[in-house]
Amino acid sequence: MNRSLRRAASVVAGGAALCLASAGIASAETPSSEQIAAAVYSAPDASAAFAALPADQQAVFAARMANWISDEVASGPAVKREPTVQEQIAMGPAGMAASGCWTQYQYHTWKDLGIKTGVTWMTANWCSNGSRITSYNIAQPGGQGYKGIKYNGTGQKFINNVGWEVRQAQQFNFSVVWATAQPCMQIRGGATGLHSYRADCNLG
Questions:
Q1: Lowest mean pLDDT: which of 39-53, 93-107, 132-146?
Q2: Please, which residues have CB within 8 angstroms of residue 136's CB and are 6 or more apart in sequence?
Q3: Is the pTM of this model over 0.85?
Q4: Domains in the chain: how many in total?
Q5: How far apart are CA 40 and CA 23, in angstroms?
């Protein structure tokens, strides 16, 4: 290895050691999952700090990203609105008198170690003829990463219309190098306008 490569490797390793030291980890100790996460989140460059970790510690951090804690921030009653022409057609003439359409916006914070790692948001729309769901969609989903975590856009959508209620879920993608988080938001809308929220993709 030439002198310049040795110097670069030394700088990266030194930076990782400094991050771990700032998290209260002596070099001879095996750091805990919490200490590894704290070192990455507190680093000026989370990606560089993660890349400098040994492979086993990277795996520990990646496992934490897969289990972010949810913290509901914004919710409220579903807002009733006028149906579009297409939604009216889907309701059918027999159900027009008892029908309705609703919109529900949700904003959510995700955390690890009590540290905000990302936020996500989405709007769910649905209509019914009074007894069953006739149309639905997810609108304007988005997100933002914090502490050097990259937001990579939306992932899969999951929908289950059980007749009296439609369950709409949206997955969101975050990453630090190869470690990924895919948290999910779900809004359930009922045929009478009632709704509920879940921080997962389980539509059962």
A1: 93-107
A2: 124, 125, 126, 127, 159, 161, 166, 168, 189
A3: no
A4: 2
A5: 9
